[in-house]
Specification:
This protein is an all-alpha fold. It has one domain. The radius of gyration is 15 Å and the shape is globular. The two termini are about 25 Å apart. The mean pLDDT is about 90.
Length: about 80
């Protein structure tokens, strides 16, 4: 865990922007390579954008903060309801 924390601490915005996270994570989770051909992405994008906009307006969050909050809520929903 220490290694992961150290990597996170030392990663800057420029490095993050250069990284294809979908490709990186698809090594462990192959669905990330294929879902674009199967999922109605515009449908989900529209709903996610609505949530972004609501969080930004209601809590005066930046877009980055709204994304991080939504990502965290989604992760907790998954973990709390995992079967």
């Amino acid at each position: 865990m220490k290694n992961i924390e150290e990597i996170i601490k030392n990663t800057n915005e420029e490095n993050q922007a250069k990284t294809d996270w979908t490709k990186a994570w698809s090594i462990k989770y192959p669905i990330l390579k294929t879902y674009q051909k199967e999922v109605n992405i515009p449908k989900y994008s529209k709903e996610i954008r609505k949530l972004f906009d609501e969080l930004q307006a209601e809590y005066n969050y930046t877009e980055l903060d709204a994304m991080l909050v939504l990502k965290d809520i989604l992760a907790h929903e998954y973990l709390d309801h995992k079967k």
